[in-house]
Write a structure and sequence with these properties.
alpha/beta, Quinone Oxidoreductase, Chain A, domain 1, Rossmann fold, 2 domains, 6-stranded mixed β-sheet, 19 strands
């Protein structure tokens, strides 16, 4: 089959012929229908994030189940459409038992080995060279083999493109609002970054009644889309003093909550400065390995500000993704508005050129 292979950071990824073995116990073979073009894959391409190489890229996808391995539960059947999760769920470790499966201990196994939850790969290069999975998914490919617990059923009426982006960008942004922002109704909320994750946060914040809802970006087209999705105020961070403008909008008080979907030191520092007393910064954007930012200690203590990290929207994907699909079908989350260009898998390089050039909406790769 064809798949996008990254052999070394900084070198171009290429569409190559690869081998995919049959699913083993508790696994599924899925034909990919759509895969989201996410910045996280780009971080691996540049070396900002590291993983065992060579690997097949892609972690935000959806498709049709074509084959079942032995021992699957019966929850998923051949012909079902599924969205793919990049965090496994063993159901036995301390994190899973505590209801926080995005920190399941098998995530570390996948990251260290470049394999599936058992630490082994189903991918290989022609001639026998080893090839790794990215976060247990690797959906920049015609087909994937995934653990059954890394798949969520997609109901009728949810298009594959929407299902794909919901399994990463949407659940990260909406989940950050649902799980980390408390008492949001009629309280000011700031979103930094109007990409797929940031705009998902905007939709989630609008749904729960945050007001005013302020969005910051440096692209006017993205800010316009944010307004259409519920932002009451937008700020172009290239042209305006972000902190001063937020304080002006909020009457000098600052925001109750801020969600940073960018992952840069300067935006995180600005977000802290925008918080009202007892306000919370929720960091969802990833940066380079080892990156950090500065926090004024006295401001943190004396104004009782809080900073929390949120992986995968602090969600329980097997529960929260069906909720998101339900809200989409009810017209409460207009996720179609997030979709950008649809690009053939063979033109993935063009999709990432558009992403880094500031394309509006989530690009979709279609095998």
């Amino acid at each position: 089959m064809k798949a996008v292979v990254l052999r070394s950071p900084g070198a171009p990824a290429r569409l190559e012929d690869v081998e995919l073995s049959a699913p083993r116990t508790g696994e599924l073979l899925v034909r990919i229908e759509a895969a989201g073009v996410c910045h996280s894959d780009y971080h691996y391409m540049t070396g900002d994030l590291v993983a065992p190489l060579p690997l097949v890229l892609g972690h935000e996808g959806a498709g049709i189940v074509e084959q079942l391995g032995d021992g699957v539960s019966g929850r998923i059947r051949v012909g079902d459409r599924v969205a793919l999760l990049w965090r496994p769920r063993c159901g036995r470790c301390a994190a899973c038992i505590a209801g926080n499966p995005v920190l399941c201990e098998l995530g570390a196994v996948q990251a260290a080995t470049g394999g599936l939850p058992d630490g082994t790969t189903r991918l290989s290069l022609p001639g026998g060279g080893e090839l790794h999975h990215l976060m247990g998914v690797s959906c920049f490919a015609e087909r994937v083999v995934v653990n059954e617990n890394a798949a969520v059923l997609v109901p009728e009426g949810v298009p594959p493109e929407v299902a794909a982006i919901s399994a990463c960008a949407v659940i990260t942004g909406v989940g950050a609002v649902f799980h980390e922002v408390t008492e949001a109704a009629a309280r000011p909320l700031l979103v930094l970054g109007a990409g797929g994750v940031g705009l998902s946060s905007v939709m989630g914040a609008a749904l729960v009644g945050a007001h005013p809802l302020i969005v910051v970006d440096i692209d006017d087209a993205k800010l316009e889309l944010a307004r259409e999705l519920g932002a009451t105020h937008t700020i172009n961070g290239r042209d305006e003093d972000l902190v001063a403008r937020v304080l002006e909008i909020t009457g000098g008080e600052g925001v109750w909550s801020a969600i940073d979907a960018i992952g840069r030191a300067e935006t995180l520092e600005q977000a802290v400065a925008c918080l009202a007393p007892t306000g919370t910064l929720v960091a969802v954007g990833l940066g380079a390995v080892g990156a950090g930012f500065s926090v004024p200690l006295n401001q943190l203590v004396q104004r009782q500000k809080r900073i929390v990290g949120s992986l995968y929207g602090s969600s329980n994907p097997q529960l929260d993704l069906p909720r998101i699909f339900s809200l989409y079908l009810a017209g409460k989350l207009p996720l179609d508005r997030l979709l950008g260009d649809r690009v053939p898998l063979a033109d993935f390089g063009e999709a990432y050129r558009r992403l880094t050039a500031g394309a509006v909406g989530r690009g979709i790769l279609v095998p």
